[in-house]
């Protein structure tokens, strides 16, 4: 280690000195902190909590959701069309049922996830009453929790908003089902308001635009109120609100193993409060390999539009997808966002439903070229993927089309991931309650230590 680089005196120590020292520390860190990837083959480590065949390690039992994307055939993973059910109800039936019966579906989906059965008419009325009663933010919440430090990091604002609710809860730590259910209903109803309020504050402070705080209406669904609160004139069409409601229903839940739900379950298993466990879920969802992918898809589409001269030319798009995978274009991550899934192989049922609905809106709103470009990415990626020697069966995931849908609804890019979080709060809460009532064990996996012994050396001899 080059100790010369470390500035020894505290006096006159500047930010520039600090930056230099951090660089030196990182150089030393790199020298001592690599784990040989071969070790993952030597020791029985389920890296990323995956088995050798790519399937997830089974970490628990759940009655909340089933995500089905392959069958095991003679010990091998065999791809099938994806299926998703909430509490045993097929997602297609849930979405189609609400469309046919001319009803918004997110509230009843949240009830289904939390309670375990579809609500009766009267129970749905109770759910709406609870949402209306609880959606109002506590007095001075916006000023004290959100306005003091306006931020462009809306996912972090959302997490802070959830943590902030803890300060206004007289009984945050009680793990009884009654208390968890009350807290869950409150958070599900308040998150849309927290998201829009944080966004309005950001508009005023960072974008120098007007901010407006429209009161949610009791007769409106959550999807309707989000559009009402977001828009300056509070106006929206029924078709727009229905599509947002479908998006929220599709994003409401996705099994116990997805990163953010597992994070929520891990924290819940320690017996911590609901606010801390949900803040962990939001933090996880922010990542580009998870919920943050919807924003990344929009960014990637921007790169493709710049990089190809004709959006309808398969050859040009394929060439660009190769470049993305080879880290020669885009954000250089090597990922084609909106494609691939840990469980789904042939299809992601959420993407199928969203695509069907997005197509119609794209035609009506003059976004058909954008829609067609996404379809080309979906069609061409498996070929590009296979040509790179990757034999994983890959399909479009929900995030490929969700960003375009939100854009067509006039929802700004920066709210795409927060909207996912708002919708997923229902699933997180359901899993949290299940972890507390049925899990019963601190989630605590192990790490195999592969470190070398080193002696303690007195400071003046190092
Ligand atoms: N683009 C490029 N490469 C991809 C890819 C994609 N969309 N999806 C998977 N891969 C690659 C991985 O990098 C990995 O390569 P490696 O073996 O050389 O490291 C290989 O395929 C297997 O991937 P793995 O991470 O085991 O698959 P997974 O099932 O865990 O991955 C995702 C699932 C979602 C993380 C992955 O498909 C991905 O990153 N997709 C893009 C981000 C995205 O859209 N996320 C939203 C998910 S809903």
Short key terms for the protein model shown above:
single chain; 462 residues; mainly alpha; Citrate Synthase, domain 1; Cytochrome p450-Terp, domain 2; 2 domains; 3-stranded antiparallel beta sheet; 55% helix; binds coenzyme A
Would you mind describing this structure in some detail?
With 462 residues, the chain is mainly alpha-helical. The protein has two domains: 82-292 and 415-439, Citrate Synthase, domain 1, CATH 1.10.580; 293-408, Cytochrome p450-Terp, domain 2. It has helices at 15-32, 39-42, 91-100, 106-115, 121-135, 141-147, 154-167, 177-206, 222-230, 238-251, 259-269, 274-285, 293-307, 314-325, 349-365, 368-387, 398-408, 416-439; strands at 65-73, 76-86, 89-90. Helix 11 crosses helix 18 (416-439) and helix 12 crosses helix 18 (416-439). The termini are close together. Coenzyme A binds at residues 54, 289, 293, 325, 334-342, 390, 392, 397-399.
The CATH level-2 architecture of the largest domain is identified as Orthogonal Bundle
Numbering strands along the chain, what is their spatial order in the largest sheet?
1-2-3
Low-confidence stretches: none
Annotated CATH homologous superfamily of the largest domain: Citrate Synthase, domain 1
Tell me the helix content: 40-55%
- Give the CATH level 1 class of the largest domain: Mainly Alpha
Structural class: mainly alpha
> How many individual domains?
2
Largest sheet: 3 strands, antiparallel
Gross geometry: globular
Q: What hetero molecules are in the model?
A: coenzyme A
Write the element-wise H/E pattern from the N-terminal end onward: HHEEEHHHHHHHHHHHHHHHH
Strand content: under 5%
Number of helices: 18
CATH fold category name of the largest domain: Citrate Synthase, domain 1
């Amino acid at each position: 280690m080059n100790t010369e680089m470390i500035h020894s005196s505290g006096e006159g120590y500047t930010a520039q000195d600090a930056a230099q020292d951090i660089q030196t520390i990182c150089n030393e860190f790199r020298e001592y902190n690599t784990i040989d990837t071969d070790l993952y083959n030597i020791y029985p480590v389920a890296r990323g909590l995956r088995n050798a065949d790519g399937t997830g390690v089974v970490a628990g039992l759940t009655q909340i959701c089933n995500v089905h994307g392959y069958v095991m055939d003679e010990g091998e993973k065999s791809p099938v069309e994806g299926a998703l059910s909430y509490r045993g109800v097929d997602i297609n039936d849930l979405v189609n049922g609400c469309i046919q019966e001319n009803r918004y579906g997110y509230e009843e989906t949240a009830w289904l996830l939390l309670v375990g059965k579809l609500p009766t008419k009267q129970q749905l009325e109770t759910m709406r009453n609870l949402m209306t009663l609880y959606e109002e933010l506590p007095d001075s919440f916006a000023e004290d929790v959100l306005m003091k430090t306006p931020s462009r990091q809306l996912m972090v604002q959302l997490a802070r908003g959830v943590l902030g609710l803890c300060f206004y809860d007289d009984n945050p730590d009680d793990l009884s089902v009654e208390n968890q259910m009350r807290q869950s209903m409150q958070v599900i109803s308040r998150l849309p308001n927290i998201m829009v309020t944080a966004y309005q504050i950001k508009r005023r402070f960072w974008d120098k635009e007007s901010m407006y705080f429209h009161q949610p209406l009791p007769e409106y669904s959550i999807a309707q109120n989000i559009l009402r609160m977001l828009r300056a004139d509070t106006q929206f069409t029924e078709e727009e609100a229905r599509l947002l409601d479908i998006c929220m229903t599709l994003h409401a839940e996705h099994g116990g193993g997805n990163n953010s739900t597992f994070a929520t379950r891990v924290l819940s298993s320690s017996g911590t409060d609901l606010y801390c466990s949900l803040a962990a879920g939001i933090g996880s969802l922010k990542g580009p390999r998870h919920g943050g992918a919807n924003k990344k898809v929009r960014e990637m589409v921007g790169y493709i539009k710049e990089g190809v001269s004709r959006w309808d030319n398969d050859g040009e798009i394929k060439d660009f997808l190769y470049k993305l995978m080879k880290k020669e274009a885009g954000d250089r991550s090597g990922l084609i966002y909106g494609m691939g899934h840990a469980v789904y192989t042939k299809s992601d049922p959420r993407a199928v439903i969203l695509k069907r609905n997005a197509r119609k809106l794209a035609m009506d709103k003059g976004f058909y070229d954008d829609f067609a470009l996404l379809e080309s990415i979906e069609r061409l990626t498996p070929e590009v993927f296979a040509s790179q020697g990757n034999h994983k069966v890959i399909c479009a995931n929900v995030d490929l089309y969700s960003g375009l849908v939100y854009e067509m609804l006039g929802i700004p890019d920066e709210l795409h991931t927060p909207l996912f979080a708002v919708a997923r709060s229902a699933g997180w809460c359901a899993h949290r309650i299940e972890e507390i009532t049925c899990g019963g064990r601190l989630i605590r996996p192990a790490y195999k230590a592969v470190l070398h012994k080193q002696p303690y050396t007195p400071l003046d001899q190092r």
